[in-house]
Every structure is written in C-alpha cells, then in structure tokens.
Amino acid sequence: MLNPQLKQVAQHTYQSLFGCQPELCSFQESFYGWVVFLASPKGKVVVKFSKEVGRLAKEVSALSRLSTVMDCQIPRVLFFGREAGHDYLMLEWLDGVPAHTLPDDPKLIEAFREHYTDLLLSLHEHREALGFELAEDQYESCLIRAFEAWMQPVYRYVLSDGSPYSARLKDQFTQLWGRRAEILAPINTHSSFTHNDCHVGNVLFQPQTGRVAVLLDPLDAGFKHREFDVFLLDDVRPDLKLIERYHQKMPPAAGFTCRRWFLSLWQDAKHSRNIGWYDERWLLTKMAQFERAYAGA
Known about the structure:
Layout (H helix, E strand, L loop, with lengths): L1 H17 L4 E8 L2 E8 L2 E8 L4 H13 L9 E7 L2 E7 L4 E2 L7 H19 L7 E4 L2 E3 L2 H17 L7 H12 L1 H5 L7 E3 L8 E3 L6 E4 L6 E3 L2 H4 L11 H8 L6 H20 L4 H17 L1
Antiparallel strand pairs: 1-2, 2-3, 3-5, 4-5, 6-10, 7-8, 9-12, 10-11
C-alpha cells in the first residue's frame, strides 16, 4: 500500500506547485527511501521520501552548501514537507546518466575519472579554521574527539541489546573503537568540506563527454577530513580506480588502507542505526579486510 500512497503525495504536490497533473515516469526504492520521477510540459521533478526522520532536512542544507562550492550541477530544492508519515523533498530533475552505468569505453572512463577527482579535490580545498564540524556553528579542533562525538551514538547502538549485531561483531567493533586514536592520528590535521556519500552511484555524467554532470544525495555533508569522501570512491565501480587517481594527485597520509576499512565499517554501522540495515556476511568480510590491512600497517 505504500507505493500508491507516496505516488499520490508526489503527484498532489506537483499539481499544487505547477498547476497541472504530471506524468508518473518512474518509482524507485533507494537505500534511504523512495524516489518518484514526475514530468509535464511545465517541468520535470524528483520527489524523495525518506525512511529516516530528519534525513531530508539535513539534505536540504547540504545541497545548498554544495551548490556554492561545487563546479557542477547540484539539484535545486523546490519543496520540503511531511505527509503520510514521511518527510519528502521535491527537487529539480537534472539531465545526466547514472555514473555506475559508464560503458567500457577507455576515453569516457578516463574523462570521468579525471574530471570527478578534480571536482573532489577542489571541494576538499574548502577548509574550516575552527576544525571539524559537530553541528551548526559547533566545531572541534581534534579529529579524534570529533569522530568520538559523531560515532559514540553509533557505537552504543552496535553494542545495545536491541541491535542485530552478533556477539562476534560486537567484540570486533569494541576492538575497532579502542584503536580509533591510533588509526586516525595520521589525519588529525585540518578539515575539508566533504559530500560524505560520493561513490559513483550518486553521480550523473554527460554521455557525450564522460564529464560529471550532476552530484546527488549528500549524506551528513560538512567539514570532516577528505578521507571521509575518498574511502567511498571504490564502493561502486571499483574498476574506475578513482581512489588510485585521487591519490596520484593528492598522496594520502600513512595508513590509508587501514583507515579505508575502518571508516567504511563505521559508515555501515551508521547506516544500520539510521534505517535498520544489517548484513552479517558483508560486515565480517569487511572486518577481515580491515584486520589484514591493520596487521600489515
């Protein structure tokens, strides 16, 4: 019953804003919610519904901030509301092709790889002298303490009786938490503005040129460390070798391989706390990758 209800909300909102009934082009479930694509001669829009209360309010702010610093298109917010038990956001529908569908064309791949890493490097040059962002107008000069502030609620969730985490994974996350200062120490330096979910599943490209057209779906964007973006780059289409290209232009601090899996595991734990996602095999495999990197560091 959920799909028809959300479609109805999206179409009613479109009609209220544009004064006409739109055509329903597509309805898709995403990791954090549902997306409705609508169009009419008066305009094309994307309507996002969130599974997590408060998620889209953060996205409104993040999209606004990104639009001032990114040299590519960022969707413009047309409406933000709540109905049928869900926050929803109406955005302009920008043209582009999902980057995870990049064809196996060396010229297109090279153009995309070069342009996207340049865009991220430019984004990461935006720094905050006060340090790492905890909340609006609240900063911490030490990344390790900032990480603790960001992730202590997630850590408590992982260990709680109500979490789906197995005893084995709870023990492993306890060890992981105990190593946080050691692992983060090499990047306990200056902050950078980050998108925080910048894998290519959230990028559209221009099919004629391979260049980035649109950047979508920021997650908790703000002043963190650049590696909070970099570790995500190979999550989708690792064959594009975006991490490798980024590091050719900006060499990493010592211990990146270890931090990559460390940050990825905490990102997964955050997703689990936010919307209830859990995949035991996935997490155990990633934990083993971390342990191998940690042992070889």
